[in-house]
């Protein structure tokens, strides 16, 4: 994105900008914030005539069956200030994709380019700065649950400075990396869940208009909507504690003590087996005895809860079975996950529609099948290294936005003797990441790397 105009501002600069824009009322409820932005933008941006990069959101990519992420070059024809949207015309696209000529898009998805038509008189710097202020606000300061809160409260005094300080504490490394990655993953998950919730609400509304609200399909959508709502409330409760600087410091101190104890603890071997017949348990234990005749073991009852407890030297051995995760599984400090039978015999799947594995530390997964047909992404490697050895990774085979593994800056992925199939994009390696593959196959995908 070198071709777009970007800004690097301090906490005090950001705080002053938002106070100038949003402090015209003694009480500014969250429902009235959009009106203040419309008034500000009318005075700050060019209504038409400029070019920008449009970063297509995930759901738009899914609608047009194109890979995510995708960016296109657009020309702005008009601004709709009340809805904070723009009418744009496509000028150039990535790869060989087909899109309608014109779109109405959110202003926060537009990044003004440095190069513009010199025959048009523009106040480009003002436009780019105004969109930067708006984008930062909706990406980092407004939360999905704000709109459900008491509408008589003043959003500015309640949230503005505390959320700005949280953002800059994350950015500047004041919060330890493991904790900061956890907070970021919560926020990303919440916003994705909110986008999915809005989509479902729209679909259910259309079903009602067509008098289809009693159908089994609509009832299933309502059930999913309730599950999304519950998960967003859970994230809200955790984030409200973390947003408070005093409470955040107490929690971080507790986590530091806990991490210190984990770091000095001896390696543990865990056994995991789903409900099965006595003969199958006995067969599993006999196999364990062959591989680990001198080790002591702890029996694990819940896969997701055990994954959080594991540290880099711990080993979790899975019996042949199908294991179902109800939410995102987070590896806080690495681990080793092993199946001891054929990889097709030990299957891990998830009910999460967002992400299957959120990885920090060094994690080795061996001899298992990861069925990631439900979530949008199988694994994100945030901080550390993921090693996949003799594994199957399976996507849903149909979605245009389904991603296998995302490797973030500074992290590593090593794939050995694996089969990856059914994703729109198998592996996404961000700038600064390292990806290596050996004796592995990627097939039935739109994009390999």
Could you walk me through the main structural features you see in this protein, from its secondary elements to its overall organization?
This protein is α/β, with parallel strands linked by helices and 449 residues long. It contains 10 helices and 22 strands. It has helices at 11-22, 33-42, 58-63, 124-141, 155-171, 177-209, 216-243, 245-264, 278-291, 303-309, and strands at 51-55, 71-80, 85-93, 102-106, 110-112, 269-272, 297-300, 315-318, 321-325, 329-331, 335-339, 346-350, 355-366, 369-371, 377-389, 392-394, 403-407, 412-416, 419-421, 425-429, 434-438, 441-443. The strands form 3 sheets. Strands 6, 7, 8, 10, 11, 13, 15, 17, 18, 20 and 21 form an 11-stranded parallel β-sheet that branches. Strand 6, helix 9 and strand 7 form a beta-alpha-beta unit. Helix 6 packs antiparallel against helix 7. The two termini are 19 Å apart. The model has no long low-confidence stretch (mean pLDDT 87).
Give a quick precis of the structure.
This protein has 449 residues and is α/β, with parallel strands linked by helices. Helix content is 37%, strand content 27%.
């Amino acid at each position: 994105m070198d071709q777009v105009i970007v800004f690097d501002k301090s906490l005090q600069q950001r705080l002053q900008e938002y106070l100038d824009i949003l402090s015209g009322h003694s009480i500014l409820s969250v429902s009235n914030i959009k009106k203040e932005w419309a008034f500000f933008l009318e005075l700050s941006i060019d209504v038409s005539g400029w070019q920008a990069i449009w970063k297509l959101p995930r759901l738009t990519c899914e609608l047009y069956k194109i890979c995510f992420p995708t960016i296109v070059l657009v020309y702005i024809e008009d601004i709709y200030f009340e809805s904070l949207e723009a009418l744009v015309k496509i000028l150039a696209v990535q790869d060989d994709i087909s899109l309608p000529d014109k779109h109405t898009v959110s202003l926060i998805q537009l990044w003004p380019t440095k190069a513009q038509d010199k025959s048009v008189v523009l106040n480009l710097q003002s436009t780019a700065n105004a969109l930067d202020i708006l984008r930062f606000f909706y990406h980092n300061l407004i939360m999905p649950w704000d709109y459900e809160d008491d509408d008589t409260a003043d959003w500015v005094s309640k949230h503005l400075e505390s959320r700005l300080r949280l953002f800059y504490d994350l950015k500047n490394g004041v919060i330890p990396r493991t904790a900061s990655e956890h907070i970021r993953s919560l926020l990303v998950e919440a916003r994705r869940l909110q986008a999915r919730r809005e989509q479902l609400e729209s679909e259910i509304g259309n079903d009602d208009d067509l008098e289809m609200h009693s159908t089994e399909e609509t009832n299933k959508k309502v059930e999913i909507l309730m599950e999304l709502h519950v998960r967003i409330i859970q994230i809200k409760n955790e984030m409200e504690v973390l947003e408070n600087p005093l409470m955040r410091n107490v929690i971080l101190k507790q986590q530091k003590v806990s991490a210190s104890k984990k770091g000095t603890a001896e390696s543990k071997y865990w056994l995991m087996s789903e409900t099965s017949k006595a003969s199958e348990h006995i067969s599993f234990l006999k196999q364990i005895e062959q591989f680990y005749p001198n080790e002591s073991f702890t029996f694990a009852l819940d896969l997701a809860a055990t994954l959080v407890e594991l540290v880099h030297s711990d080993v979790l051995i899975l019996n042949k079975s199908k294991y179902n995760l109800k939410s995102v599984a987070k590896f806080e400090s690495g681990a080793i996950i092993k199946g001891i039978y054929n990889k097709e015999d030990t299957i891990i799947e998830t009910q999460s529609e967002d992400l299957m594995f959120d990885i920090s530390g060094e994690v080795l997964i061996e001899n298992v099948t990861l069925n990631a047909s439900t979530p949008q992404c199988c694994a994100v490697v945030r901080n550390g290294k993921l090693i996949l050895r003799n594994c199957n990774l399976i996507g849903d085979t149909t979605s245009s936005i389904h991603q296998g593994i995302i490797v973030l800056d500074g992290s590593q992925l090593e794939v050995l003797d694996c089969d990856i199939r059914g994703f729109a994009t198998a592996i996404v390696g961000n700038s600064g990441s390292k990806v290596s593959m050996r004796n592995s196959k990627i097939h039935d995908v739109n994009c390999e790397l």
